[in-house]
Amino acid sequence: MYKFFGPGGLIARQHPKYEFRPGQIDMAEAVRQTLEKGGHLLVEAGTGTGKSLAYLIPALQCKERVIISTGTKNLQEQLFYKDVPFLERALGRQLNVTYMKGRNNYVCLHRLKQAQHSPVLQGLDQVDHFEKVYDWAFKTHTGDRAELNDLPETLGFWSSVDARSEICLGQKCPDYEPCFITRMRERAASADIVIVNHHLFFADLVLRGREYGSILPEYRIVIFDEAHELEEIASDYFGAECSNYRLLELVRDASSAAWPDTKVATEVANLSSRLQQRAEQFWMHFQPALDLEREFPARARMRAGAARTWDREGRYALDPSRFVTRDGSGEPTQTPAGKSLSTLIGALERLEHGLSGIKDAPPEAETLARRSAQARADLTFIGSCSDSRFVYWFERRGRGTFLQATPIEMSEILGEALFESVYASVLTSATMTSEESFAFIRGRLGIVKARELIVPSPFEYARQAILYLPRGMPDPRSLEFLDAVVGQTIEILKRTEGRAFVLFTSIAQMREAYERVRKLVSFPCFLQGEGSKSGLLDRFRTTPHAVLFATSSFWQGVDVQGEALSCVIVDKLPFAVPSDPVVAARQRYLEERGVNAFLEYSVPHAVLMLKQGLGRLIRSREDVGVLSVLDPRIRTKGYGAVFLKSLPPCPVTHQLDDIARIFVRHSAAPPRESRDE
């Protein structure tokens, strides 16, 4: 590894600004040994370590296929379009590397042709966009919609032309040979390295061994980047879900298929119409609670102890009493919601049987029947709420209502399905430890034995950053807390001249703070939700002294180097809300086994999230800036020491006047208190 990463090595000769980092060599050597000898490796690689190259080069030396899985499509594209070409130039040869995304990222040629004659477009702008997509689809080599960077991120008709698996006709499709999914799989089958994202990886892991087979080619070695996200993403794929969107798409596709004659088309249309009616009646039973959550004032929710956090509009627990009650004699009786669920399941079954009995049916009939059967199975499972290994809940996302069953404990599932079945795995992230221990993440993922390595960031936090913890902040649960957050934010922004992320754990508090702060400062203020994430980041980078108010999606995976981002303000320690059904179920599971769920689950989880949020600030050796946590519990509670010990080793101050000094390089006065004090 020294030949690659050492001073004067292969990478240094190719990169004029290359900086020698001993930690990068340590990580690369640990990865090399793991891929060669087998087993599992956990690596916390601080920001600036160069971890991508530290695992890519050993992976290229491996004698068998390696799957690299990333937390986001952005990182996936960075590896493939930036890092791999750099290594090809450095090594002087072409590398056999490809990437795979989820099928809904690719256009389906068969569906695109059908959509020409279907009413899927709304408005003249969509007609123009469709024509551009159609023209592009027959020129592109990949079919990946990421190439359409001159079109809006949200295309209303994309779900009608994408290549999702539930509508795929397989080898019966007239466009099977030129299909972009077919081509993608062929490239992956012959590649040395396949770059995927966590969502696709776990979608494949769930399918392996089932009737419809796997997505990824066979592998024995996998590298996970941004591994701190694995538990949350995996739990979505090992559970069950059904939404109003899913049923509407089933109805739409059944109605628009090319049936053999008018009689059959009419019969399918009637079955689809009945299903749509039953679905609308069923989802109405979940509307009152969701409307109440949306309309209930934020401060009243806080007073009631029911404030929702992160970027969800609220998860609500599901239990059998929503669908079945017992009368005075103890006999079970269906509730109105239960009766509606039964009629919906019956409508799905009738559609399934109707589609299966059509003579000379087009290939779509089989996939539609399969989709109907799977939706029926998922609704039946979720509606029964009978498997104690799962927690059942529902929520609103935009205009969608989602019912979900999530495994309570993922460690046994992942241990058996993944870590006991692969020869070697590497898990890396900038945030994997709490108090310099991997115990939390190892336990959550079911990894019994692993090599462990902590590679410190090469950045000089003692010189480049300062941690501001204001005194006198009220309890975060009090009504006075938001007033104090607004006041402190304004004072901090004056001293940093804007150039800040202000990160919240609650959408309601984010919006209220934004409305109040922007009226009292002269800096341009942006709000999450005003545009796409990438669009907001571009505006933030190019607008002098800008301030961005955001929640969870901006806590991680965001890279803004230079003066544009000189301050990160966090309102509260990012504890998962205890009333969340999934969080509550996992805490209860631990408590029943004699584990202190708060100290062993809630605190380590929040530590990882806080490290991610504050990790947005220092992204290069030239960056300087201010980290600020406004939550007084980081100083006043016993567990606060766990957070402080896990944060970057920068000086701590309680004085606002110390903030401006960090920007006066080399002549900055030292803060008045040290971390130890």
Can you walk through the features of this model?
With 677 residues, this protein is an alpha/beta fold. It has 4 domains: 2-96 and 191-238 and 410-455, 3-Layer(aba) Sandwich (Rossmann fold), CATH 3.40.50.300; 104-172, no CATH class; 250-407, no CATH class; 461-661, P-loop containing nucleotide triphosphate hydrolases (Rossmann fold, 3-Layer(aba) Sandwich). The chain has 27 helices and 20 strands. Strands 3-4-2-5-12-1-13 form a 7-stranded parallel sheet, sandwiched between helices. Helix 9 packs across helix 10 and helix 15 runs antiparallel to helix 16. The two termini are 41 Å apart. The model is unreliable at 292-313 and 666-677 (pLDDT under 50).
